[in-house]
């Protein structure tokens, strides 16, 4: 598990953790994504926005290994990667949190954080009988949550008993525990109340502070402007514009989304 205790270096203007170079995806005669390019630096949050069908989900699924690009390159830490599955992308340090969170509601917080990645007990109990080193897992879970400022009453309570914001926080914490490089967040504030939205947005800022590159997909533009360093707009499968959040406005982003303004 990567350490979350040390503060990460600030993002450098020219640093690139992830580079998407003219990625395209075709489904038969349908082009879902056409030569989309984007890069994300360490500790940078890039908001990815656009209407339904703009190509956002397809782009992210290519990065996460769920889809194979028809053409173009995915470059991670300077190395061209060809992911054949989400497992390969995760092994390379790319984690994705989808809207359904992929949490097991009847398992507790610790069990969810280590879902599919458990620590076996040392010696014969672990090797022969598959006994878990639950104490170690609990300690690492507490450390990971504390490093991100996540407060949960009991790590032994089922995830089903947590609020929506807390469940989202557990899913993000799990991704950060195992994702060394890149975190992809798909509509993380959907169906959350105001206080829970604030919790999730603050958590994304803290994740960024640990040096993780974040691509944040959302239809809720005020949330994107609240946390993103840059905003990438997709329209009809193409990257319509990539703007520094400080140099654009909600109205301008909406104009790119609708096609009222063309990419520069």
From TrEMBL:
Matching InterPro entries: AAA+_ATPase, ABC_carbohydrate_import_ATPase, ABC_transporter-like_ATP-bd, ABC_transporter-like_CS, P-loop_NTPase
Record Gene3D superfamilies: P-loop containing nucleotide triphosphate hydrolases
CDD domains tied to this protein: ABC_Carb_Monos_I
GO molecular function, one term: ATP binding
Domain ABC transporter: 18-261
Keyword list, A-Z: ATP-binding, Nucleotide-binding
Pfam families xrefs: ABC_tran
Statement: the UniProt record of this protein carries the keyword ATP-binding: yes
Stored SUPFAM superfamilies: P-loop containing nucleoside triphosphate hydrolases
Name this protein carries in UniProt: Fructose import ATP-binding protein FrcA
């Amino acid at each position: 598990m990567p350490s979350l205790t040390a503060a990460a270096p600030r993002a450098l203007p020219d640093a690139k953790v992830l580079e998407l170079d003219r990625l395209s995806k075709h489904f038969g005669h349908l082009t879902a994504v056409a030569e989309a390019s984007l890069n994300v630096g360490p500790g940078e949050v890039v908001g990815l926005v656009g209407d339904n069908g703009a190509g956002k989900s397809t782009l992210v699924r290519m990065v996460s290994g769920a889809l194979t690009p028809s053409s173009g390159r995915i470059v991670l830490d300077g190395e061209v990667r060809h992911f054949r599955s989400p497992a390969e992308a995760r092994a390379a340090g790319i984690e994705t949190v989808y809207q359904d969170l992929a949490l097991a509601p009847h398992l507790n917080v610790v069990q969810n954080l280590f879902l599919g990645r458990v620590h076996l007990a040392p010696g014969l109990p672990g090797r022969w009988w598959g006994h878990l080193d639950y104490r170690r897992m609990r300690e690492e879970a507490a450390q990971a949550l504390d490093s991100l400022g996540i407060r949960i009453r009991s790590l032994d309570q089922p995830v089903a008993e947590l609020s929506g914001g807390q469940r989202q926080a557990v899913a993000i914490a799990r991704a950060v525990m195992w994702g060394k490089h890149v975190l992809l967040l798909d509509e993380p504030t959907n169906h959350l109340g105001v206080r829970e939205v604030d919790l999730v947005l603050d958590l994304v800022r803290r994740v960024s502070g640990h040096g993780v590159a974040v691509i944040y997909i959302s239809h809720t533009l005020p949330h994107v402007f609240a946390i993103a360093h840059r905003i990438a707009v997709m329209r009809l499968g193409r990257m319509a514009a990539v703007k520094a959040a400080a140099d654009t406005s909600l109205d301008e982003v909406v104009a790119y989304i609708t096609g009222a303004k063309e990419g520069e």
